[in-house]
Structures are given as structure tokens and as C-alpha cells.
Amino acid sequence: MHPYTKHHSESVSAWGEEKLLTAIRRWLGSASPRSPFGMGDDCAVLPASRGKQLITVDPVIYGRHFDDTVSPRAVGAKLLKRNLSDLAAMGGRPTTAVLALTLDPRVSRRWLEEFYRGLAASARHFNVALVGGDLAQTDRVIAASLTLLGQPAGPRIVTRTGSRPGDWIYVTGVLGGSLRTGHHFRFTPRLAEGAWLARHTAVRAMMDVSDGLAKDLHALTPRGAIPILHPDALPRRSGASLVESLSDGEDYELVFTVGTRSDHSAFVRSWHRAFPRTRLTCIGRFMRPGTEPSGSLKLAAFRGYEHLR
Amino acid sequence: MHPYTKHHSESVSAWGEEKLLTAIRRWLGSASPRSPFGMGDDCAVLPASRGKQLITVDPVIYGRHFDDTVSPRAVGAKLLKRNLSDLAAMGGRPTTAVLALTLDPRVSRRWLEEFYRGLAASARHFNVALVGGDLAQTDRVIAASLTLLGQPAGPRIVTRTGSRPGDWIYVTGVLGGSLRTGHHFRFTPRLAEGAWLARHTAVRAMMDVSDGLAKDLHALTPRGAIPILHPDALPRRSGASLVESLSDGEDYELVFTVGTRSDHSAFVRSWHRAFPRTRLTCIGRFMRPGTEPSGSLKLAAFRGYEHLR
Fold it and tell me: Which of A234, A116, A122, A132 is nearest to A187 (CA)?
């Protein structure tokens, strides 16, 4: 759906701010508690957190993260799910979110309503309270930035650091072709899987695959090692080439490492009992340079998504 | 300073993402703790909060909240201070912030460095930890959205609700002419004043004046009452007309209400001991319609800043 309207009367600017804010509250419904705990005051008020908190921020921008082929409901849901994927990657569960929206005045109210309804439905589904936001006007821009707060789902947070040379590398699901297939807005963030993995101390480090495995994997790689992948082992989405599975991005899968001394077969059996429908693949390991077997992938030759180029 | 460069070699896109992120960490310096407590992982990790938390989000956008006449350092500082003003209005003190940045690839690295250094200096000054962020590219846009977390500075949070008919209305500082005089980026958020006011139970409701008093005051107005202001009492910035003091916006002052039974002269004396250099003005009161004295201002005739029009 195209977000702009040619008829001023159907645009967000025709309504003006006050009417629009009233409508937004209606569209959000139970996904947004009332002030002072939600919208309507200078700040939203959140309850005390018992333990550590997690915070992340990610946007969706027209022309970059979505286009006219994506329904506005799916855009709203994607905005939340992108952030949930970051939370999943640390073993977190979500609590609250705030939204900063920048809108061209010609955006149609229908588009905006569907966007908010998609966001609200997703927030209710994942138990996220949308407690606040900001609305600003800028020509030729539709950008929504969501800040998501969460907590550890269990006793442990898993970060990107902690892998050691020799560790094995696992990935959930399949990679590549996300934009072409619509996976980039249809995906389900791996919250349950991330929480499960964080409870398993065999898991040393974890992150989500959002810019493409070839690029993202650098952040997991321990000093003095390189990632050695077996090209045949990479779980590709149907129709995706090897290069696409390494570089496309927007996979929203989890990549994590498990130490050599762990009981890998017990770990994998346990995974399949917990997630019988979710593929788990050991794609390679971190090795010291010079010790890699022949036929292994040189990741430096592939590039993932560059945010500024 | 104009944010765009004509020379590709001086632009943010010439550097690429990795180099840029390294530079951003250097520019932020001690204002940004390292991961997992700061940037560099899927989420930032925050300590548990002992009490309630406050959260707010506000952007600065090129062409709307700043232009070439504002130095990039002042833009970075303004972004934080706008959010601090919202926190001040509830009697809060800041803890942490995350930043979502959307940049045209032609933005000069010099502009961006100055922006970050201004933000970092302001964060250190106000004791805010910049723990995370996101960087996205969009043509023809420079927009930065900051989500700020805080805590109550004392035992009480003050919201916008709680005023009653008869309450007196006070405002700090002077109003109007903010854009013309540069107040919109030179202001100091009223954090100390907001915390002080929240400790005084005589104060019933409070907010900051950001869209112009005429518009903002509606949010403080109790059911069954209207705000009755004395035009001569309004504290105007030098050179600002009555209309400007009511409608210009970006004042970043505090407006609050005090009940009729409170000892107003003791309250005002106490204020002046605490803040000898900050003007405090009783500008009117909330009255039931039909009981207003002649010569009082009809606020409905004035409009403040409309975010979408």
C-alpha cells in the first residue's frame, strides 16, 4: 500500500495534531496504557525493575526497510519484531516500548491507522506495553524508531563476547533471500529460542543475524581465531544462493557458539525436543589461522549489509 | 554550519560503517560506557532500578529543530536538553539514553563529529550515560531521536493531572522569542527547579512549556475550569510580544499549579532562596467559566505549535 494520499482531506495533516493523537490512542487500544503509566504526560512512568534491564533501538524507514509492496500492518509489526530479535539475541523478554514517528504531512490516515494497528497487534501478541512516543513532521520522510526495554528471561544474559578458538558455531532457521520472499516482515523473532539458549550454559556467545552472516559473524569471533564455515552446511532458504545466504541480511535468526567440551549431541537432541519445528545447524567453528581444512569458506570475500555506503 | 559536504571524501559514507562506529565511540568518550553495558551488542544492559522509572523520547530534525545557523555541538546538546526538560517537568533526574540517528550519506564527518561531541559534553554535564544507538541512512534527512530514561529525583513524581478549579498557575523564567534569540538551543533544562518543585506538596501538577503556553496549558486545565491569565503578568522575553510569549513554543520553562489553601508568599520566598536568579511568576488561575474578571485573556484565541499541519 502506498503511504501517501493525493487528497489533502485524507492526509494526516488535515486532521491536525490533537485529533490525530486521539485516533492513535484508539488504534493502539489496550497495547497502550493510560498516563501517567503511558502516553499523555511529559514522560511515561515505568515500574521498578527487579533485575537488570535490556534496551535496544531500531527504526523502519520508507524506501529502506519497507516499500509499497509491504502492508502498513506488516510495517508496524516489523518495527517491533526487529527490536524483539535484538532482545532475543541476549536471552531477553520484552516489557515496554516508546515510539518516535517522523511523518510527511501527505501520509494518508488509512496508512497510518493500519501501521498503528499492526504495531498494536504485535505488541499485544508479544506482551509489550507501548507507553509513549513522539510525533514530528518532515517532508518526504516516513520513519519510525522504536526503543524497546526488556529483562533477562532467565538467570543469564548472553552477549556477543565469550567465544573461544575451537568453539562450534550454530545458526537457527535458514538464511538468505529475506527481502525477495517477504521473510523480512513475516518472520517471528526468536524470543523463545533465545531464552532457551541463554539457560544453557554450553552457549557462550550469541547475536542475531540482521546484516548477513558474513558480516555479523565478525562480532562473535574471538581474538586469534577466524570463522571456518563449511559451504555445504549453510542452511539456505529455498532459492537462495550461497552468497545470498551469507550477505543478504534481514534473516532475524540467532547465531551462537558452543564450546568443544560440551556434549553437542545431547545439546542438539534437547533443542529438537524444545523446538521440533525449528532447524538448528552447526555451520562451522572458530579456528586459529593456518589450521583451516581445505574447502572451507573465506568469509572476508563476502560482505553483508553496510548501513552507510 | 551546513551539514552537507560537496566532497565525497569528507562525507560519512566515504568512511563506511565500521570506521564510523569506531569514530563515534571516540567522539562520545566517557559519555558512553562499553558493552555489555553500552554500545556494541544487540542490546545495552542497564542495572536494576530501585524505584519507578521515567521514559521520554524527542527528536531533532534538520530544517525543523535546527538549521545552518545552529552549530552542530549545539544541535547535539539540544537533543539531550529537550528530553531533559520533559524529565524536569515530572521531577525526575536522568540516568541513561539511547540514540537513533538517520543520516543522509552526504553529511560531512566534521558536522557529525561536532554533533556527537556536543551531545557527549552535554551528557557528561547532566550525568547521562549514552548506552546504545542505531545508525540508518536515508536521503535528504538528518534526524536524531533520543530516548531518555530517568528516575524520580525525590519521593514524588508530578504529573500533568491534579489541578483543581481555583488553583493558581505559575511559570518559571520568561516566554516567547525562543527561536529568534537562540534560547531554543542555549537553554538550561529546569532539572533542579523541577526536582525542587516535586518535593513541595503545594505543587499539584506540572509540565514543561514546549509548544507555547496557550496550547500547553490545556493539558494542565482541570475539568470544569478554564485558565484565566492576566496579560500584564506574563513574563515575556525581551522583545517578545504577548502573542509570541503565548504561542512561539520552545520555551523549555516549567508551568505548574498551586492550590488556593497553600501559603503562597512562603512558597515564593522559599523559591527565591533556592533559585535567586530564576524568575517565578504567578500568571493567573483556573476558574469556572463565567466567573472570570474583565480584562482576562481568552486563551482559545491563541494557538501554539502544531506538530502536524
Answer: A122
